[in-house]
Amino acid sequence: MPNDGRRPDRVAEAIREAVAMFLTEGVKDPRISGLVTVTGAQVTRDLRHAKVFVSVLGTDSERAATFAGLASLASHLRPRIGRSLRLRLAPEISFQPDESIAYAARIDTLLEGIKRPPAEPPADDAGDEESPSR
């Protein structure tokens, strides 16, 4: 049986969808507050470990509390994912912050800085003293 190289990608997408659905419908942990968006997932080739990337809006303390809540939620989410995806072994889930939005914003500001022409120095009357024409 040939090894299907796309299977981890399909499983990762299914995990992303299942986690997003669970976070919108079934979370009762008060630490998970604010807007949590599941942006992606990566699964190892052996399907034993999954990284779920999330973007969390809020203050730094709210983000830290949300990630603590997500970490404790991961062990409860694992059997659910295994059942819903009909996997023999459910992957261990770890939640990672998705920094791609901040990274894209940083690149955008850098590109805007390059596009802007440099500011012209203010005109001085001191330049007339240097002119030898008088």
Structure overview:
This protein is 49% helix and 18% strand. The protein has 134 residues and is α+β, with helices and mostly antiparallel strands. It has one domain (7-115): GMP Synthetase, Chain A, domain 3 (2-Layer Sandwich). The protein has a three-stranded mixed beta sheet with strand order 1-2-3. It is elongated, with a radius of gyration of 25 Å. The model has no long low-confidence stretch (mean pLDDT 82).
Order of the strands making up the biggest sheet: 1-2-3
Strand count, sense and closure of the main sheet? Answer: 3 strands, mixed
Using the coordinates above, name the CATH class.
Answer: Alpha Beta
Number of domains: 1
Helix fraction?
40-55%
Which fold name fills CATH's third level, the topology? GMP Synthetase, Chain A, domain 3
Full CATH superfamily name? K homology (KH) domain
Strand content range: 15-25%
Write down the Rg. 25 Å
Cα separation of the termini? 93 Å
Going by CATH, the architecture would be: 2-Layer Sandwich
Low-confidence stretches: none
* Strands, total number: 3
Total helical segments = 4
- What would you call the quaternary organization? single chain
SSE sequence, one letter per element: HEEHEHH
Shape: elongated
**Broad structural category:** alpha+beta
Mean pLDDT: 82
Keywords:
134 residues; alpha+beta; elongated
Give me the secondary-structure topology.
Layout: H1 7-25, E1 35-43, E2 49-57, H2 60-85, E3 92-97, H3 100-115, H4 127-130
Parallel strand pairs: 2-3
Antiparallel strand pairs: 1-2
Helix pairs in contact: 1-2
